[in-house]
Amino acid sequence: MKLKIEGVKVRSISSCLPPFVLDMHSLGAQYGEIEVAKIIKTTGIHCVRVAKDGITSSDLCLSAAKKLINENSIDPDQIDGVVFVSQTPDYILPQTSHLIQKRLNLKESVFCLDIRLGCSGYIHGLLQSALLVQSGACNMVLLLSGDVTTSFINPLDRACRMVFGDAGTATVVERGNSSMMFAIYSDGLGAERLIIPAGGARVPRNYLTEIAVKCEDGSWRSECDLFMDGIEIFNFALKRVPLLLDEVAQMAGWDRNEVGTYAIHQANKFMVDTIRRRAQVEAHRMPIDVEKYGNTGPASIPLLLSSVGQIRQNEGRLSSAVLIGFGVGLSWGGVACQLNETKIIEPITYIK
């Protein structure tokens, strides 16, 4: 799907991190010092944030939203749409976006929508938010995206535990004078490459699905734990993402070297660097912050922008930005937009 949406803008972006920091070097006693050092060198991830004590993705997103609302002096009554993007909702039902409407004391006429999607989810959330604004259904949409993926990882699965972290973000999309160009794709044939097999209607959770077994890669996991085929996900990303970078830039009428910032999903440093080289993009155009946070799923792109955006904005690098997400589904998508006037707020730490 390709689409140009006019008359919209991203007003502000914020993010929130759980307070607990898991240092990957601390796992040496459990997984072996040599193995841990090898994984750190490959992924570039030195630590991740972990949501403990019942902290949910909506808690993190709400904290980011309140910071954003205060920093932008937004009257909550101005918000007429809430889009919540997460694979870790508060409940199977109801929608978490309805709970957010209540917790923020938003008006009853607010449109609420949950999108159950991971690493490409922020792009889908931006698309839905921009469509609501362009159609006239909403004037201001609060887009929340985040995950507490660590709650679905078996502690004995080093492949996932040393990659995924938790975070929540908030973005405001409203009427404006700029345009957004989207390209979004899906391939359900790869669904089993990144999956939690049990817990839904297809395979209900029970005591058997909770039994962890030793897998071929030496990790332990149950059917209720997250499974990722890292090699296949890497191959998928390397095949699809470099082409998408050029495609989205061309939709905006930009040459590859005219793009100031490529903000792509922070899966791991090796993957980002390999995609960058394959796409022939200069290193300074594709920032990386994965070493501090790990793979934060749908929070990855806005967290990256929240972390490095102010500096890049001052350098004029956000006047032409291409955002790219890819992962679970399998799915991949991108948007070309201007973020030079977007108020970007540095990440905050969640306080319960």
Characterise the protein shown here.
- This protein has 352 residues and is an alpha/beta fold.
- The protein has helices spanning 28-31, 33-43, 57-71, 96-103, 121-135, 158-161, 230-251, 269-279, 290-293, 300-314; strands spanning 2-17, 20-23, 47-50, 81-85, 111-115, 140-147, 167-186, 194-195, 213-214, 220-221, 227-228, 261-264, 321-327, 331-337, 343-344, 348-349.
- Strands 1, 4, 5, 6, 7, 12, 13, 14, 15 and 16 form a ten-stranded mixed sheet that branches. A two-stranded antiparallel ribbon has the order 2-3. Strands 8-11 form a two-stranded antiparallel sheet.
- The longest helix has 22 residues, at 230-251.
- The radius of gyration is 19 Å and the shape is globular.
- It starts with a strand and ends with a strand.
- The mean pLDDT is 96.
